[in-house]
Specification:
By secondary structure, the protein is an alpha+beta fold. Helix content is 37%, strand content 25%. Helix 3 packs antiparallel against helix 7. One of its GO terms (biological process) is prolyl-tRNA aminoacylation.
Length: 526
């Protein structure tokens, strides 16, 4: 064999050796920093934490139990709250006839490119193509019309938990922008404008509570601008969250008042109780919260070790890991150690804590620490033989990395207290982050400077669509200073219900032309 041949042979063997090692032992930890490459960090976090599995249809993803369990917590809370308001669950078909979908021509125009159609069964073309629901106004309202004759048939308050399909062409991102997603959509019809308007805000409050009390994500409540509202409705209220790692805001949930726009299209009407023979149109709302919320939580709380879960939505809140099980540890001590871990787990479960022990003996404690850290479990409890002798254990918080030594007899109280503390700490941290990144500007120069330093900005605004177009165009940048990516223009995120400052009398719109009507929050967004 020639010398060249031997070298070739050695190298190809080496290559296959390295390849098989890397296939057998994929890198465990997160390999990029959140502050250095956010999108790569995000995809590593969601896959390595076992929330998402990729799928071979672009824009569609598998939600694994670790992610789906978060959705179940949201569902349980939200479902309970809307039932208190008299909302009932139901299920309507996922298919929409062309005629129903196109009834609301005015607003469907903008959305038409995203609607997916079924055109064939097998090789046979359908007589009429059928759309897959992108939202269910046009699915439900023909039925509402059948059900409403008199004011006694109102209100109708329905909700459904389902999937919807919007065939987006922008870059997809798991949870944040997907072609199929899960949501709840509420649709209600009322006899009076006031009844409907009250409900819009009640629902918005529940959305804010989902984010603030469960996901530990602070939100800004407000009304959408004319340009950004749901075109089919009268006005849109929204909760907006902020991802400081990208300097971008994200729409967290919306609650719309539809006025009688849809009632007129679908003839949802009833006899005026005060003036028989006179027909009145119902006043309607629709509102939705999606699995995007899980992406928001990930973006906001995740760190360079991986996912960080707020305790209230964590499938496992406490993981108990036996430590110091070496070959030299006497059998009776090993048994006692595992028994103690199991006892802790049982005692916590008895108190309503979602605790789990990890007794797998083919993994080292160090490996388990990394694993559960990556998955964002709020508290890790470490128990070793020496801890048992001292009647102690060590608790490690995921949010700060802090270690707390704890007495065995105070275990339940301490852990429960620590979980509440972590929940609050995550919220307070994110709240401070939002406060530090939401500022006021009264001139375009300051507005642009703040935007380019990753902030969202409240500016005096006239509310005109043409002016909002101008702001978006003017604030767009060809190249972003540090990433080299083009920086999109600022969108109107909302007209905050509680602006940072009240508008001064005679204030002029940021564009310098018309009088300002309100402070409006602008920012780059998802
Ligand atoms: C995409 C394709 C077709 C959004 C679409 O926000 C139609 C639409 O109507 C569409 N994307 N929308 C607006 C949805 C409004 C509203 N529906 C009920 C919600 C919450 C839940």
């Amino acid at each position: 064999m020639s010398c060249q041949c031997i070298i070739h042979c050695v190298f190809s063997h080496l290559f296959f050796l390295i390849l098989s090692i890397s296939l057998l032992f994929p890198r465990l930890g997160i390999e990029v920093k959140k502050e250095e490459n956010l999108s790569e960090w995000y995809s590593q976090v969601i896959t390595k934490s076992e929330m998402i599995e990729y799928y071979d249809v672009s824009g569609c993803y598998v939600l694994r139990p670790w992610a789906y369990s978060i959705w179940e917590v949201i569902q349980q809370f939200f479902d309970g709250e809307i039932k208190k308001l008299g909302v009932e669950n139901c299920y309507f078909p996922m298919f929409v006839s062309q005629s129903a979908l196109e009834k609301e021509a005015s607003h469907i125009e903008d959305f038409a490119p995203e609607v997916a159609w079924v055109t064939h069964s097998g090789k046979t073309e359908l007589a009429e193509p059928i759309a897959i629901r992108p939202t269910s106004e046009t699915v439900m309202y023909p039925t509402f019309a059948k059900w409403v004759q008199s004011h006694r048939d109102l209100p109708i308050k329905l909700n459904q938990w389902c999937n919807v399909v919007r065939w987006e062409f922008k870059h997809p991102q798991p949870f944040l922008r997907t072609r199929e997603f899960l949501w709840q959509e509420g649709h209600t019809a009322h006899a009076t404008e006031k009844d409907a308007a009250d409900e819009v805000l009640q629902i918005l409050d529940i959305y804010a509570r989902v984010y603030e009390e469960f996901l530990a994500v602070p939100v800004v409540k407000g009304k959408k601008t004319e340009k950004e509202k749901f075109a089919g409705g009268q006005y849109t209220t929204t909760v907006e969250a902020f991802v400081s790692a990208s300097g971008r805001a994200i729409q967290a949930a919306t609650s719309h008042h539809l006025g009688n726009n849809f009632a007129k299209m679908f003839e949802i009407m009833f006899e005026d109780p005060l003036c028989p023979k006179q027909k009145l149109y119902a006043f309607q709302n629709s509102w939705g919260l999606t699995t995007r919320s899980i992406g928001v939580l990930t973006m906001i709380h995740g760190d360079n070790q991986g996912l960080v879960l707020p305790p209230r939505v964590a499938k496992i809140q406490v993981v108990i890991i036996p430590c110091g099980v070496t070959a030299s540890l006497p059998e009776n001590e090993r048994v006692a150690l595992l028994a103690k871990c199991h006892e802790y787990q049982k005692r916590l479960v008895c108190r309503g804590v979602r605790a789990s022990d990890d007794f797998r003996d083919n993994y080292s404690p160090g490996w388990k620490f990394n694993h559960w850290e990556l998955k964002g479990v709020p508290i890790r409890v470490e128990v070793g033989p020496r801890d048992i002798r001292r009647q102690e254990f060590v608790a490690v918080r995921r949010d700060t990395g802090e270690k707390v030594v704890c007495r065995e007899d105070e275990m339940e109280a301490l852990v429960i207290d620590l979980l509440a503390n972590i929940q609050h700490n995550l919220y307070n941290r994110a709240k401070k982050d939002l406060q530090d990144h939401m500022v006021i500007a009264d001139t375009m120069e300051v507005f642009q400077k703040e935007l380019d330093s990753g902030k969202i900005v409240q500016v005096p605004f006239c509310g005109e669509v043409s002016c909002e177009d101008w702001i978006k165009k003017t604030t767009a940048r060809d190249e972003e200073v540090d990433t080299g990516a083009p920086a999109m223009g600022a969108k109107g995120l909302c007209i905050p219900f509680e602006p940072l400052r009240q508008l001064a009398p005679g204030a002029i719109c940021i564009s310098g032309k018309e009088p300002a009507k309100f402070y409006t929050l602008f920012g780059r967004s998802y």
